[in-house]
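How a chain folds remains the central question behind the approach discussed here. In the encoding step, the backbone of a single protein was reduced to a row of integers, each denoting a local shape. We regard such an encoding as a compact summary of how the chain folds. The sequence in question and its structure tokens are set out directly beneath this paragraph:

___
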Amino acid sequence: MKTVNIIIADDHLMFLEGLHTILNEMPQVKDVHLATEGKQVMRLLGQFEIDLIISDINMPKMDGIELLTEAKKHKSDIKIIMLSMLDNHRTVHKVIQKGADGFVPKFTSKEELQKAVRTVIDGEQFFSDIIKQRYMESVFERKKYKDIELSQREKEVLKLLADELTSKEISEALFISVNTVETHRKNILLKTGAKTTTGAVKFAIESGLFED
């Protein structure tokens, strides 16, 4: 039987210890290392031969999505299962696009978590039913925006508007006139069908514009 070394990461110690107990029941699991934040996981990756990471998304210093990206860069064949109380479709879409091998909500059962681990270490992906549902919602939502195209400059202006910069501050940041900023703002509202800057920012978030 193939056995694996695992890192589990979560900034809540009680939950971390619960995961440790669940994994130790599995004959496929050899060693389990514990981490409370993403940078600690990266240090452990440099010290030990790790096959699988199970990580929360919401963590300090380096969140789970950033950890997912960095861990895959460090070791391209490492398997990663994400855990989160967040199951909104934008988060799910981002995690899957970043290359997660599995994703289960933190309120999942012990049996489903163990099934996810077995499935992933056998070389397949595992996503809970609710995660699959959220992913399909994200795909449907993005299709609504596929015919709306902003220019690169309009995207830059919109990102700065989302950061609550004034037109004058945006003009200085992008080395363009205030009038040009206002023209871009009007074009953004026209293209997105938003009535306000807040509405345009909401469009950007829902369409994935601000994602890496």
User: Anything to note?
Assistant: The two ends are 39 Å apart (CA to CA). The chain has ten helices and six strands.
